[in-house]
Amino acid sequence: MKNKKSILTIILSTIFIVLISSSFSKSIEDKDWKYPGFGQYTNDFYHRQSQINSNNAKNLEIKWAWEIPKRNPFVRDKEGVPVRGSWTPPLVIDGTVYTATFDNQFFALDGKDGKVLCNYEVPREKIEGMPRYSGRGITYYDNSILMTAADCSIYAFDLKNCSVKWTLPSTCENIPGNLGYYRAMNPPLTYKDYLIIEPTGGEYGARGFAAAYNLTTKKLLWRWYVIPPAVEGRKNWHLEAYRGNVKPYPNDWGNSSVIGGGTIWGWPAVDTEKGILYLGTGDPSPDLNGSTRPGPNLYTDSVVALNISTGKMIWYYQL
Question: Do 250 and 277 belong to one domain?
Fold first, then answer.
């Protein structure tokens, strides 16, 4: 049922965006939807168009529908369940619709009729056995579409032929102090020469973090952690950066040998004038039994502001 709903979601959202894009008569920038949250740095999902509104939305018609093709054989997740479907909001660029799937297929479709123009499949051996529902968005950068694969690798696809222009492999491997495992849901964010990544996986005990890479050299610039490292722990974690609305709590994380979480689910935003990166962090783990972590568990369940050049935290607000 979930797969059917996912397929229906991608079909309907694709159709809706195609209808919107085809209705504009302004500049090409107005016709395009290049970023998952529309605004490149705001990610606020707001478009200023008014041609389609609450009064005439009922007049929209389905012009075409496209069913996501399955891999043969299926890619299977870590539980051995076949993976199919999508939660990726389609992008529209110059009349072409771009989307991706849970099993890491990437597609370019003709916005007029839904015909597949080109596609790419991430090699099966790279993603077989990864967590389910990896991949929840794609984004535009420098005449390319960027996608995060299930193994946390970043792929840059050519707009015209879907060929791979470059890759950044396995950005969530060998994370210090991590005892869980990650699933890559969010697309990266680009700002100037920074590539920002924030893998999810808190429900699997992964240690939440955000990281920045240099877009030219692909070298890691900084990595900011939401929670202290597991196993060795750090008793003074709660005192290292008290810059928020919640006071630190002695032994905040308690038994740090079993902690995880705080991974970043939503798309970040950037204040381009001040160079500030805004993130929303997730819940701590174990999420159902908090007896091992008596404090507020900073910096989970928070809005966090980081210096995008250095990764240093400016402030936090725990919700």
Answer: yes
CATH number at residue 98: 2.40.128.630
Helix (H) or strand (E) holding 163: none
Let me know whether 221 and 140 are in one domain.
Answer: no
Q: What is the pLDDT of residues 288-305, one digit of tens each?
A: 788 888 888 889 999 999
Question: Domain residues for 285?
Answer: 171-319
Q: How confident is the model at residue 167 (pLDDT cuts 50, 70, 90)?
A: very high
| Cα–Cα dist 44/145, whole Å | 20
Spatial separation of the C-alpha atoms in residues 253 and 136, rounded to whole Å:
30
Q: Which of 287, 269, 264, 268 is nearest to 199 (CA)?
A: 264
Tell me the CATH number at 261.
Answer: 2.40.10.480
Q: What is the pTM for the complete model shown?
A: 0.86
Q: Is 204 left (phi over 0), alpha (psi -120 to 50) or beta?
A: alpha
* Residue whose C-alpha is closest to residue 78's, from 176, 178, 183, 7: 183
pLDDT for res 26: 47
pLDDT tens for each residue of 92-114: 999 999 999 988 899 999 999 99
Number of Cβ atoms within 10 Å of the Cβ of 29? 8
